[in-house]
Amino acid sequence: AVHDEPGFFGCLSASDGLFVGKPSMDALPAALLGASHRITVQLGTKVTAAEFDNGWRLSGTTLPKPGSSSAADISELGKYDALVLTDVGNLLRGRAGHVAITGQAAVRALAAVSAAASQAERMPLFALMMSFESPGSGLPFDAASIQGGRVRWLAKDSSKPGRERADGRECWVAITTEAFGKELLGSRDATGALPAQTEEYLSSRTDTMFEILQRDLSTIGLTLPAPAFMRAHRWGSAYVGGQPPGDPAACIHSAAARLAVAGDFVAGGGAGGALKSGIAAADALVDSCQQ
Ligand SMILES: Cc1cc2nc3c(=O)[nH]c(=O)nc-3n(C[C@H](O)[C@H](O)[C@H](O)COP(=O)(O)OP(=O)(O)OC[C@H]3O[C@@H](n4cnc5c(N)ncnc54)[C@H](O)[C@@H]3O)c2cc1C
Fold this sequence. Notes:
This protein is of the alpha+beta class. It is built from six helices and twelve strands.
């Protein structure tokens, strides 16, 4: 597993400070996008095929609209100078995010990284969001990693800058170990799909996670009051296990195909690794587009 140190993504051992989005994490991409007026983001769209022919011709589907069960096919998403693949699922046939790549130069460039990606194991995690009425949870810390516990990380969201709530409630997030995440996941069906996240599914995971958290806390003499609200959230593929296929802080790049493969599954290291990998991909693609 990638994250076998105590804490979560190096939070307990960070020597150069901890960074959080203010007031929430989506401030980070919003600020990056706001810094450029030349970026258009097309949300709710899944790329399913990409053909390289002196540029990238993309096609895909839109995600189902609320109340509708089927996705709409879009034959043509446009032609682009370069392509960046940012998800390990893009490289794996049969996975939800798979992108069928055609064009000789691109297929050649991807052969090695696709082979490495097929060995990668996707790690599921569950998060439990909880809020407590004033005077709060009573826990004597802002964040903790319970050694030997099934909850790997517990953090007080309300202690982060700008996250105080007007109603005075105190919010916490607990995150499972990989092993406990797998246990909570349930069985995949014959196609490899995860169980549907029905109300019943999520509410049973919520209760189980809270019970296990209480058990973990009791080993250090602590107990939580009943939360005013709690809800489990599933991250079916929170991150990729094993050795990243690329160099840290780098991307895999083909100048001939104007193609880069980037993200945490290439560089490792959570959001920081993903960011550095993205910058490396952008630099490499600017160079290859100018050739
Ligand atoms: C619960 C949790 C807590 C975390 N906490 C931390 C933390 O405290 N610190 C930290 O550093 N890291 C943390 N991480 C890890 C961090 O979120 C990831 O490392 C980071 O988001 C990886 O960025 P990425 O760009 O590589 O991939 P992603 O953020 O996964 O982005 C890939 C994007 O590609 C999209 N995509 C995939 N396939 C397609 C397709 N076919 N068509 C169109 N779009 C597609 C996906 O929808 C997704 O938006 C946490 C992760 C989880 C799950």
